[in-house]
Amino acid sequence: MPVEILLALAVVSAAAVAFLLLRERQLRRRRRMLAEILDLADALEHELLECRDRLREVPALTPSLPSAARATLAAEPQVQDALRDLLAHRLWLRDHADEADSAKLAAARDALRATRDALHLQLERLACVRSDLADARAEFAARVTSS
């Protein structure tokens, strides 16, 4: 076999191996991104459920408020909408993850991160409100019992 043919086979083989390694690396990166998206979605769902539970506790802290004021505290429909949106995104991933390009997957991941960050801020605010309400309730109870 002439040296040129062997050299050509070596070059073609090296190119094929390089292509396969590059492709495997891209697939691994894609799998990691999908796993990260699903992990973020799971965490967001858990946090939304926790938020809903905390919101459900607020009316117990505010029994003396007028019903109109308590109604403004009930943000459960927004949490339910967020859970529905999250389910829609999970279904989209199930149906389209295979053909979605990396940019769309990265956008989905970034959107989930941003939503979680915003939710964390809201949960912190809710914790402050709950604490303030509990303190006010205890102060009111102390005044009532001392009078």
Question: Which descriptors apply to this entry?
Answer:
147 residues, mainly alpha, rod-shaped
Helicity, in percent? over 70%
- The DSSP helix count reads 4
Run of helices and strands: HHHH
Strand content: under 5%
Characterize the overall form: rod-shaped
Terminal residue distance = 108 Å
Please provide the count of β strands.
0
The domain tally reads 1
Task: Please give the largest β-sheet.
Answer: none
Low-confidence stretches: none
Task: Summarize the helices and strands and which ones pair or pack.
Blueprint: H1 3-61, H2 67-73, H3 76-96, H4 102-146
Helix pairs in contact: 1-3, 1-4
What does this protein structure show overall?
The protein has helices spanning 3-61, 67-73, 76-96, 102-146. The protein has one domain. It is 90% helix and 0% strand. The mean pLDDT is 84. The chain has 4 helices and no strands. The protein is an all-alpha fold and 147 residues long. It is rod-shaped and about 110 Å long.
Structure summary:
With 147 residues, the chain is mainly α.
